[in-house]
Design brief:
The chain is built from nine helices and seven strands. It is of the alpha+beta class. The strands form two sheets. Strands 2-4-5-7-6 form a five-stranded mixed β-sheet, covered by helices on one side. Strands 1-3 form a two-stranded antiparallel ribbon. Helix 4 packs antiparallel against helix 9 and helix 5 packs antiparallel against helix 6. The longest helix is centred in the middle third of the chain and has 55 residues.
Length: 368
């Protein structure tokens, strides 16, 4: 069995996915860099073992103090804002003073005049305050960034859930309207005592519903699957219209596996049946075409009906399911990366043209 190809960064995780791990890495890297900087500064002023030891002790003390600060800051973040800010500033001042005293104490071992003096403590205050204040700013800045990222992730999750709910609602709008028409036709056949035809229609309706209900409402299907479902639907409609309903399919084999929302074309054909086949004694032709142009799939549903009626575009289906539904589903599925147009002229039929990106697989929404 061939091994799967592993691409660089294929299993890379976000740096802040494990916050504890990220904190220890940043803490170690930051204070290692500070130690290197202080050591280089000490050596530039004259190499001495005492100076290097002093830099190492200074970095260790700073590392330990900031660990204590991180614990206290974590507690302060859960307090009311004003209280947390006051306690943070107080703690920062106290930590700066402690750091300066320890620095002065360490310096006293290498100075000609040992001892911790007030002047030495004040001498270290500014540098130590700058270091601890910078560390504190980074601490709160990174945590604020993580909070914002978490809120963005939650918003995206809610948007995805809302989008899925919208798609499900639009998809579920289709079946009631179709069922109403089909069951009405079956009822008519029963009243006319054409039980055999009613049974055939009922059997085909059962097959159609079994297929459509098996798919998730937000799922995508291949164009070939969509055409097969459409043909199954048209078999039911031909029971009503016989020779008045004439269908033609011209599907480019290259785009047979292109993916699109399930039952996207059925409302368009149903619309054509209602406004082209039904009002004309001779019926009408309905043509479904699909072409692959570059990386785009162009789909058209056209009929030979009366087209423009009373100087107004053809209305959507009576229950509100039709062109508006298709527009919404395309927007939900492809965003702005699609085209939806209608074309009509008086006495020259009506057509709907759809252009979508050529996608062979649904986008993977789960993290690798």
């Amino acid at each position: 069995m061939p091994r799967p190809t592993v691409r660089p960064g294929m299993f890379a995780r976000p740096f802040f996915e494990d916050k504890s791990r990220a904190f220890w890495i940043l803490q170690a890297a930051g204070w290692s860099g500070y130690l290197l900087l202080r050591t280089v500064s000490s050596i530039s002023n004259g190499f001495s073992v005492e100076g290097i030891i002093k830099s190492i002790i200074e970095a260790i003390v700073g590392y330990c103090l900031t660990l204590l600060l991180s614990t206290l800051y974590g507690y302060y973040r859960r307090l009311p804002r004003i209280t947390g800010i006051l306690l943070t500033l107080t703690t920062l001042g106290a930590a700066t003073l402690i750091y300066a005293v320890l620095e002065a104490f360490t310096f006293s071992f290498t100075a000609a005049d040992p001892g911790v003096t007030l002047s030495r403590v004040f001498g270290y205050l500014f540098l130590n305050f700058t270091v601890l204040a910078g560390w504190s700013a980074l601490y709160f800045g990174i945590n604020f960034y993580l909070i914002v990222e978490q809120q963005i992730d939650q918003m995206q999750l809610l948007e995805n859930q809302a989008s899925s709910a919208q798609l499900a609602m639009l998809r579920y709008q289709l079946n009631p309207h179709f069922l109403f028409n089909t069951l009405n036709s079956i009822s008519t056949l029963v009243l006319l005592k054409q039980t055999e035809r009613a049974n055939v229609m009922l059997s085909r309706l059962s097959s159609f519903l079994r297929y459509t209900l098996a798919n998730e409402p937000t799922a995508h299907v291949t164009l070939s699957q969509e055409i097969e479902t459409l043909k199954l639907y048209l078999e039911i409609e031909k029971m009503r219209f016989d020779e008045r309903l004439r269908t033609h399919f011209d599907i480019d084999p290259r785009c047979a596996n292109a993916r699109l929302p399930s039952l996207l074309l059925q409302p368009l054909v149903e619309n054509a049946i209602k406004y082209a086949v039904t009002p004309q004694e001779e019926g009408a032709d309905i043509t479904v075409t699909a072409r692959l142009t570059g990386e785009r799939v162009q789909i058209a549903v056209s009929d030979t009906g009366p087209g423009l009626i009373e100087s107004k575009p053809r209305p959507t289906l009576s229950t509100g399911v039709g062109l508006a539904n298709i527009r919404e589903r395309l927007a939900q599925a492809f965003g702005p990366d699609h085209r939806f147009e209608t074309r009509t002229k008086l006495g020259e039929g009506f057509s709907v043209e759809i252009e979508i990106p050529f996608q062979l697989e649904e986008p993977n929404r789960e993290a690798a």
